[in-house]
Specification:
By secondary structure, the protein is mainly alpha-helical. The protein contains twelve helices and two strands, in the order αααβαβαααααααα. It has helices spanning 2-33, 39-47, 49-104, 111-117, 128-143, 151-161, 167-186, 192-204, 208-219, 226-232, 244-249, 261-274, and strands at residues 106-107, 125-126.
Length: 275
């Protein structure tokens, strides 16, 4: 607002200076060319301001228009800034909710799995340990046939052997991850760099077993476009390089899902150079 006031004062000062300068110029011009400064001459001199008044009117209109434009831009900037602040506040609230939802996740090995590994695995696991236990059992079931599974087959194993039994607490967790990613993707005010900051913050909150199960969840048909977010935001990047989790999921997701932005940028530059 201070900037707008300064602009308005500057424009008003300019107009006043032009008006005074015009009067001074005509007075000096009259003296120079020997015009009689009688009333009738002064009247003619005053009439000369008619054209200048039209100029003043146009300049005044321009000044008002400029002031309104600057006011509009400032209001627009304020609205954008308020939106960003609100988005950031909501984002961190959702991260808090994600931590709470993660803590509420629980998992117990199935009876079929316990038959193979003994009764010592009867305790229910909670939080991050639940994700770890879930992956361990899933990993066992995909190896039992000793063959390569298709995407449909592996998602079917995940659903029936793990997800279906604990959908009541796993479902809210994955839906919250999906909601956060969708809000980042669909926001029309944030630029790409700002969006990248938020999805990287989300990715940094996930451990490798959570990330692996997110990857498995994205393979299910009921997950709809969840896998697209997983690929676009490279959620699987930090799966340990030589881990079983990474090796399994690399069969069902494109390489870019596991790469950093610097690697992808280099690939793009190489393609442009070759093209």
């Amino acid at each position: 607002m201070t900037k707008l006031l300064g602009v308005a004062i500057a424009i008003a000062g300019l107009l006043f200076g032009v008006w005074v300068g015009w009067a001074f110029f005509l007075t000096r011009l009259s003296s120079t060319i020997g015009v009689n400064e009688e009333i009738k001459d002064l009247g003619a001199w005053g009439d000369s301001f008619g054209g200048l008044n039209a100029l003043f009117g146009a300049l005044a209109f321009s000044a008002v228009s400029a002031t309104l434009y600057f006011q509009y831009r400032q209001n627009e900037d304020n609205t954008i800034e308020q939106h960003k602040q609100k988005f950031e506040a909501n984002f961190f609230k959702m991260l808090d909710l994600l931590r709470e939802t993660r803590s509420a996740v629980e998992y117990r090995y199935s009876s079929d799995y316990r038959k193979q590994f003994g009764p010592s695995n009867t305790e229910k696991q909670h939080g991050t340990e639940a994700f770890k236990a879930g992956w361990e059992e899933f990993s066992y079931w995909i190896d039992i046939d000793g063959r390569e599974l298709t995407k449909e087959e592996i998602s079917d194993v995940y659903y029936h052997k793990m997800y279906k039994r604990y959908e009541s607490n796993l479902g809210p967790y994955f839906r919250l991850i999906y909601t956060i990613l969708k809000k980042i993707k669909s926001d029309s005010v944030l630029n790409d760099e700002e969006k990248e900051l938020f999805w990287k913050l989300l990715r940094s909150q996930l451990n490798s077993h959570e990330t692996a199960l997110i990857g498995l969840n994205g393979l299910m048909l009921m997950s709809k476009d969840f896998s697209e977010f997983i690929v676009e935001y490279r959620l699987l990047k930090y799966l340990p390089e030589k881990s079983r989790r990474r090796a399994v999921l690399k069969k069902y997701y494109p390489p870019s899902t596991f790469e950093g932005s610097e690697v992808i940028a280099q690939v793009v530059r190489t393609k442009l150079t070759l093209g």
